[in-house]
Write a structure and sequence with these properties.
GO cellular component, one term: cytoplasm
Low-confidence stretches: 1-19, 32-40
CATH class of the largest domain: Alpha Beta
Mean pLDDT: 89
Protein name: Folate synthesis bifunctional protein, mitochondrial
Number of helices: 16
Number of domains: 2
Largest sheet: 8 strands, parallel
Helix content: 25-40%
CATH architecture of the largest domain: Alpha-Beta Barrel
Pfam families: HPPK (PF01288), Pterin_bind (PF00809)
GO molecular function, one term: dihydropteroate synthase activity
Cofactor: Mg(2+)
Strand content: 15-25%
Strand order of the largest sheet: 17-16-15-14-13-12-19-18
Shape: globular
Length: about 500
């Protein structure tokens, strides 16, 4: 298909010759009156920036992505989501900024026309430059082409001075340069050897959390700055056979009482689980899981103490996830990362809620089989396999800004593996970063609470005697980069994370 058609009705075209391609295979395209040269090419990889500061900003993003997909842009990657102070015209609301990477057969000006139509259809009107807008869509890169015409410059002319543009752009790359197209994007960087150096010159990661720029995760009706402090997820097992507290909270009254206790002790999130995922657990049906789950969720949502807190459902059934969200749950926590229900990713994408993707091999009945415990390097192998789960979720329409990572402590791992993961969280992040910086920057959750490996190390056969060891494991995880800890005993671990956060804060600003 032609990527350059007669996109302008009168006289502007593109003249491309052999001399327009440099040694790196980068094409420079300049407007030429009365000249259109057709170039036959395959799909082109593009990066498109998004910004919004009018109305429901996140809903604007979701609608723009939907319209882009309908218009012939296949989105393959999403950057993180940033809330930023306005630039240039400062007397206006704060922006949400991000970017997406995808492929399209649309020519560059055809693509521009599609994006401008989406902006118009979503209510953008001609206003002051850099002023408020419901949606702003800009082409940052188009294949390996540099484009200069009367109406389009690619790379975008002011990209190099804007941290709120460069940050999401960097997210769409991996630390490994994996294609000629990506190499060409790095070569476009002005005053730097590559885009990574440009980002560092602008301030790099030190900008995030300062100077009006926050990396956020949308959940409920809020934007969660999850990096500002470590969060505690309290476990509520509505099961007969969970390894630690099965059978204790089967009645609605007992469950509500436990939720009230965990909230009073500092829980930020309550994670409802109505299906046991302990080793060799028997699987129950969707109907039985919902029968246990929904009455408790309904009762908890009536509690005044739950105001401002988050609710999560621990399930690998998409139907359970859907019903739980309809009844007020904010996050879906899937121990299989979407592998045990082929509909999970598409359902969560449609629900537009955060998705916690955990690493596990097999299922709870087989995860501890010998073949599932074979690793060459547990942190690198877990990172690669978890990345594959995350990539599948993203391609199904769950943006990186709604994904949370869980390396799956205790799931298809032995004691040594679990210890290696606790001390190797930075390795897991860096291995994921080789392929996707956005996914590597997602919140990271760990769940070591009362698990068997702690009992083996500390000679504690009873699960409820492992709380001190859990505190030590949680402390290790937080100091190595965990953002959310999933625990049974909220009080002990809430104290541990407060101390860890204070230590990290002093280290950050030392």
């Amino acid at each position: 298909m032609n990527i350059f058609r007669r996109l302008l009705p009168t006289k502007v075209g593109f003249k491309i010759s052999k001399n327009s391609c440099n040694a790196r295979g980068i094409y420079s395209i300049h407007s030429s009156p009365d000249c259109v040269v057709e170039v036959h090419s395959s799909e082109q990889e593009v990066i498109i920036a998004l910004g919004s500061n009018v109305g429901n900003r996140l809903q604007n993003f979701d609608e723009a992505l939907h319209l882009m997909k309908k218009s012939g842009i296949q989105i393959t990657r999403h950057a993180c989501l940033y809330e930023t102070a306005p630039a240039y015209v400062t007397d206006q609301p704060r922006f949400l900024n991000s970017a997406v990477r995808g492929v399209t057969k649309l020519g560059p000006h055809e693509l521009l026309g599609v994006l401008k139509k989406i902006e118009k259809d979503m209510g953008r009107t001609t206003g002051i430059r850099y002023g408020p807008r419901p949606i702003d869509l800009d082409i940052l890169f188009y294949g390996k082409f540099k484009i200069h015409s009367e109406i389009l410059d690619v790379p975008h002319e002011r990209i190099w001075e804007r941290p709120f543009v460069v940050a999401p752009l960097i997210d769409l790359l991996g630390s490994d340069i994996d294609s000629d197209t990506v190499a060409s994007w790095h070569s476009f960087s002005k005053h730097s050897s590559d885009l990574f150096e440009l980002w560092e010159k602008l301030g790099g990661e030190s900008l995030v959390g300062r100077n009006g720029m926050k990396r956020v995760l949308p959940v409920g009706n809020n934007l969660w700055d999850w990096s500002s402090k470590t969060s505690v997820m309290g476990i509520l097992n509505l099961t007969l056979d969970s390894f630690s507290d099965g059978g204790k909270y089967l009645s609605v009254e007992a469950a509500v009482s436990q939720v009230r206790l965990m909230l009073s002790e500092g829980a930020d999130i309550i994670d409802f689980g109505a299906q046991s995922t302990r080793p060799n657990a028997s699987k129950i049906s969707v109907e039985e899981e919902l029968d246990r789950l929904i009455p408790v969720i309904e009762a908890v949502n009536k509690m005044p103490e739950v105001e401002g807190k988050l609710l999560s459902v621990d399930t690998f059934y998409s139907d359970v996830a859907s019903e739980a969200v309809k009844n007020g749950v904010h996050l879906v926590n899937d121990v299989s990362g979407g592998r045990l229900d082929s509909n999970m990713h598409s359902v969560v994408a449609a629900l537009r809620v955060p998705f916690i993707a955990m690493h596990m091999r097999g299922d709870p009945s087989s995860m501890q089989n010998p073949e599932n415990l074979q690793y060459n390097d547990v942190c690198k192998d877990v990172a690669f396999e978890l990345y594959e789960r995350l990539k599948e979720a993203e391609l199904a329409g769950i943006p990186a800004w709604r994904l949370i990572l869980d390396p799956g402590i205790g799931f298809s791992k032995n004691t040594e593996h679990n210890l290696d993961i606790l001390t190797g969280l930075t390795t897991i992040r860096s291995e994921i970063a080789r392929r996707s910086l956005a996914l590597s920057r997602a919140p990271l959750l760990i769940g070591p609470s009362r698990k068997r490996f702690l009992g083996e190390v500390c000679a504690r056969a009873a699960a409820d005697e492992r709380d001190p060891a859990t505190v030590a494991a949680v402390t290790t995880g937080i100091l190595n980069g965990a953002n959310i800890v999933r625990v049974h005993n909220v009080r002990y671990n809430a104290d541990a994370l407060r101390l860890c956060d204070s230590l990290l804060e002093r280290k950050r600003y030392a």
